[in-house]
Amino acid sequence: MTVQNKVVVITGASSGIGEASAKLLAANGAKVVLGARREAKLQAIVDAIQAAGGEATYQVTDVTKMADVQALVAKAKATFGGIDVIFNNAGIMPTSPISALHTDEWDAMIDINLKGVLNGVAAVMPDFTSQKSGQIITTSSVAGIKSFPGSGVYGATKFAVRNLMEVIRTESAQEGTNIRTATLYPAAINTELLSTITDQDALAGMNQLYDAVGITPDAIARVVNFAIDQPADVNVNEFTIYPTRQA
Ligand code: NDP
């Protein structure tokens, strides 16, 4: 199977990487199901996909709530008759030094970036196990493979999902359930992500970097498309994606 006709659930689909992926996958014949909190954004993206001849629907979803993510998957099954792929992509990045003790933001990152991914996994696992196929793609970060000042908790959530994806892959291989996983490690991608940073020093540094080298989220959408497009017996595990100009 290729991207064509696959049912793909995408979290964090109201902007940035999720939006770009939804549009590219739909243009290539996938049936996409968009989840995020901002309904007006989701509606506008679905309208644009449908106007271009693609198939899409949405479900307002807060990934920190298991029932919401289950409802998102249920929407995919009710609308398109099943689910083939979940792209766990929702995330926030309020970076700051640990010494600043922005503990509310620590909690939010754990809830969205880690618990949100676990909720996505739990929501698809019964179907993927019984149908003996499925693919789980998760957006980590270069902060999930390298340690950067300011990324103590953000990086911790992104290191965690890396481990989770690889363990799911190996357990599935042992259990014979054919579940594929892929983890994405993007560097500076120009999206709305920096708007989640409240620490002014951290924000200034990130703005400087992104203004200098940031690339568009289509770069990540193409990688997502590539991972889904592989034959069922091929699992492409990990992708690190840097702007060419980023050191
Ligand atoms: P955006 O801010 O543009 O997108 C983030 C998405 O996550 C939005 O659609 C937002 O939608 C959604 N989201 C946030 N909180 C929740 C929630 N509780 N429930 C459901 N959806 C939620 O940024 P990106 O596209 O850049 O971010 C996508 C992923 O990429 C994130 O996981 C991020 O950590 C990762 N990443 C990004 C990099 C970059 O440079 N941009 C680099 C490395 C990783 P809404 O507010 O409507 O809910």
UniProtKB/TrEMBL annotation:
SUPFAM superfamilies reported for this sequence: NAD(P)-binding Rossmann-fold domains
Matching PROSITE patterns: ADH_SHORT
Molecular-function annotations in GO: oxidoreductase activity, acting on the CH-OH group of donors, NAD or NADP as acceptor
Keywords, alphabetical: Oxidoreductase
Residue ranges of domain Ketoreductase in the record: 6-182
Superkingdom to which the source organism belongs: Bacteria
PANTHER family cross-referenced by the UniProt entry: DEHYDROGENASE/REDUCTASE SDR FAMILY MEMBER 11, DEHYDROGENASE_REDUCTASE SDR FAMILY MEMBER 11
Family: Belongs to the short-chain dehydrogenases/reductases (SDR) family.
Protein name: Short-chain dehydrogenase oxidoreductase
Biological source species: Secundilactobacillus similis DSM 23365 = JCM 2765
